[in-house]
Prior knowledge:
Distance between the termini: 60 Å
Radius of gyration: 31 Å
Shape: flat
Oligomer: single chain
Helix content: under 10%
Amino acid sequence: xxxxxxxxxxxxxxxxxxxxxxxxxxxxxxxxxxxxxxxxxxxxxxxxxxxxxxxxxxxxxxxxxxxxxxxxxxxxxxxxxxxxxxxxxxxxxxxxxxxxxxxxxxxxxxxxxxxxxxxxxxxxxxxxxxxxxxxxxxxxxxxxxxxxxxxxxxxxxxxxxxxxxxxxxxxxxxxxxxxxxxxxxxxxxxxxxxxxxxxxxxxxxxxxxxxxxxxxxxxxxxxxxxxxxxxxxxxxxxxxxxxxxxxxxxxxxxxxxxxxxxxxxxxxxxxxxxxxxxxxxxxxxxxxxxxxxxxxxxxxxxxxxxxxxxxxxxxxxxxxxxxxxxxxxxxxxxxxxxxxxxxxxxxxxxxxxxxxxxxxxxxxxxxxxxxxxxxxxxxxxxxxxxxxxxxxxxxxxxxxxxxxxxxxxxxxxxxxxxxxxxxxxxxxxxxxxxxxxxxxxxxxxxxxxxxxxxxxxxxxxxxxxxxxxxxxxxxxxxxxxxxxxxxxxxxxxxxxxxxxxxxxxxxxxxxxxxxxxxxxxxxxxxxxxxxxxxxxxxxx
Length: 540
């Protein structure tokens, strides 16, 4: 049985334990509704939430824009919003929180302290800028710096940039700030999100040796990172500074720099078109585990590894420049694919030197952009068991993509569906039921909903709320059926279907004929009871 190797992280374990042991207030906290463009109201709500000792929810306006123009505090460098020290959920509802692009000071957008627990849902964090020089933390994490617990759901972190090394006049120049999009020192969970277009600062020039460019264009991780169903693309690290005896190097880890002490798990995600001095996709210096993902079209290598790197069900292929894998070979757990034979793949189901035949990075369905395999890709149906129940888009895993009659999962982040045999990957799912429209038996409805749990989904079930359905096939669900026959034909209009009527074609007096010779002296309740017993007898 495979056991993943995990380095000791006493500080991070302590953070997790402290959060688990924190007293839970029985109150549900407070809800704050913030109008569009009410930046002062957002800041005031965060300050109140930080101070009341309860979990709080802040709701932003639908598709609103909140533009920050000044520094709120100087915790680990300048921040536009109050540092999160309590427990806060911000429901963005499609809103953008951004630093103004005008003539304002440089600052990051979001800061989470070691005691903080922040969840961001459905929002964009944009245009953070950190100043050059200062402390290393003070020039790092332009979009977000997290030292506590941070969760991003369906968010975008884009166009943020850390500070450069500045000028100190020393023998060696300072490095640029790390983590263009996110600098993580704590526990970070990212789901169905996009980290794109972020950049780290350049290294400082030294009198003799230049400083290195900042590492982690998209994310710098020195804590615990879990990345699910997400895309990192077009992130970049800064260049090295100059020196009389030598220049600094460009930063490492264009998409992700997994730094010393970091533990990164990447599930069903895409890392593409990132640029770095080394490790355009990922640079790993600690513990890295990648499953069911696609790493492609990065500059200066896909993954540069110097520590523990385990992978399964993953494509690392077709980098723009440099090898797919560089440095220490990964531990393959099977069913991986590379395009240049540099990953040392030799486990069950591995494919080396194969072109995965991926399409461009684009909207292939779901909330993030992906590379979909094309018809004939060796990744199609090449997995044994899926890494995840769904692919990155949310489509169900395992489809007979090669048409051989066997349903199997694909290698990489995207499952290939060709429902109409046009040799094109079907990418639309208008009813969002995880089944592409071309394969959908019930377009516009949930194909998976089975209310009565009878094994027939509601959209195909004539009696969706009745597990026994329609035993006599008359179109009437058993729970509503008054006759073991056709309930729809009543020739004499006496309220009793012909199949259960002793005189189906007569024109009886409803009470007398229906009830078989009842006397009018009986009470209405007796009449009803007698008729009911007669009908039950006929049915049985």
